[in-house]
């Protein structure tokens, strides 16, 4: 099957009314040193929707998250997060968890967790109260006074995620949040994340190299191609139907989706 027909097969799956999307990326392009990194990238993510971005290394996934979060300035196209269109407005109002947990080594778990709230001007007493309220759910209640070096990798990621989630921003960006973890910890955190976000009503964008992680977590998977980075497929995943079935890895729907994505990705490697 040609790449064009794959695109057609997988396109138009979005059931998001783009007018009501919490995150709307329209015609975004980006260059580094005159090299085109992203070209005409458009996507919408609705309230309560979880979208995964998969694509080969270097296709611009992190650059796209940096543009959405306001770390980088949009020069071509536009980005709107819940009505915020300027870079400075979005910075701090979009939650962004990067692959490295970036916990500050001199602050306790509680102090790290409340960092986003502090930056938003929330006072220490209220920040602490909000950290404590969620600490149980994030399974870090017993380690709030620990230092980051005392924590396991999985715990560190949960602290980083709590820090990202606490400011209660409507858009949450996750860049390879479980990339550095072993397979077992990773699998249990994926399940845990699904439960934590089930009622969160946020628009979530996850960057991952792991196609099965994308299938498990996302409502839609956007596949990117490199040189320049662009979206070549938009695939709907019915998580509920899949998780209700016996084993995600052997479910026929999952195998079909996984094969389609891996086929698209392998084709890009050849093109590159
Ligand atoms: P991905 O997240 O998909 O691996 P990135 O968004 O990190 O891709 O990078 C996309 C491309 O932009 C890569 O070719 C990378 O080398 C390039 N790039 C990233 N950051 C910079 C930078 N600061 N200066 C120049 N090129 C960069």
Lay out the secondary structure.
Layout: H1 3-10, E1 23-32, E2 35-45, E3 50-54, H2 61-69, E4 76-81, H3 87-90, E5 95-97, H4 109-113, H5 115-119, H6 124-135, H7 153-165, E6 171-175, H8 183-197, E7 203-207, H9 211-217, E8 220-225, E9 230-236, H10 239-244, H11 252-271
Parallel strand pairs: 3-7, 3-8, 5-6, 6-7
Antiparallel strand pairs: 1-2, 1-4, 8-9
Bound molecules: adenosine-5'-diphosphate.
Adenosine-5'-diphosphate is lined by residues 32-33, 37, 55, 57-63.
Walk me through what this model shows.
By secondary structure, this protein is an alpha/beta fold. 38% of the residues lie in helices and 21% in strands. Strand 8 (220-225) and strand 9 (230-236) form a beta hairpin. The longest helix has 20 residues, at 252-271. The two termini are 18 Å apart. Adenosine-5'-diphosphate is lined by residues 32-33, 37, 55, 57-63. The site of adenosine-5'-diphosphate has 11 residues, from helix 2.
């Amino acid at each position: 099957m040609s790449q064009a027909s794959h695109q057609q097969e997988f396109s138009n799956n979005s059931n998001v009314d783009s007018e009501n999307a919490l995150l709307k990326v329209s015609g975004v392009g980006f260059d580094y040193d005159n090299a085109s990194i992203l070209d005409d990238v458009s996507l919408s993510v609705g309230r309560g929707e979880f979208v995964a971005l998969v694509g080969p290394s270097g296709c611009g996934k992190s650059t796209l998250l940096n543009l959405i979060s306001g770390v980088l300035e949009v020069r071509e196209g536009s980005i709107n997060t819940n009505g915020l269109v300027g870079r400075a407005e979005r910075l701090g109002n979009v939650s962004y968890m990067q692959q490295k947990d970036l916990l500050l080594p001199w602050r306790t778990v509680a102090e790290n967790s409340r960092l986003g709230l502090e930056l938003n001007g929330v006072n220490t007493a209220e920040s602490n109260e909000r950290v404590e309220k969620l600490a149980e759910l994030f399974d870090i209640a017993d380690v709030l006074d620990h230092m980051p070096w005392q924590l396991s990798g999985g715990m560190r990621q949960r602290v980083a995620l709590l820090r990202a989630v606490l400011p209660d921003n409507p858009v949450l960006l996750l860049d390879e949040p479980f990339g550095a973890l072993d397979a077992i910890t990773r699998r249990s955190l994926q399940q845990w994340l699904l439960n934590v976000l089930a009622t969160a009503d946020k628009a979530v964008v996850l960057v991952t190299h792991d196609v099965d992680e994308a299938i498990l977590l996302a409502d839609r998977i956007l596949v990117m191609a490199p040189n320049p980075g662009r979206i070549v497929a938009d695939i709907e995943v019915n998580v509920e139907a899949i998780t209700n079935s016996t084993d995600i890895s052997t479910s026929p729907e999952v195998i079909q989706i996984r094969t389609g994505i891996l086929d698209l990705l392998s084709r890009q490697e050849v093109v590159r």
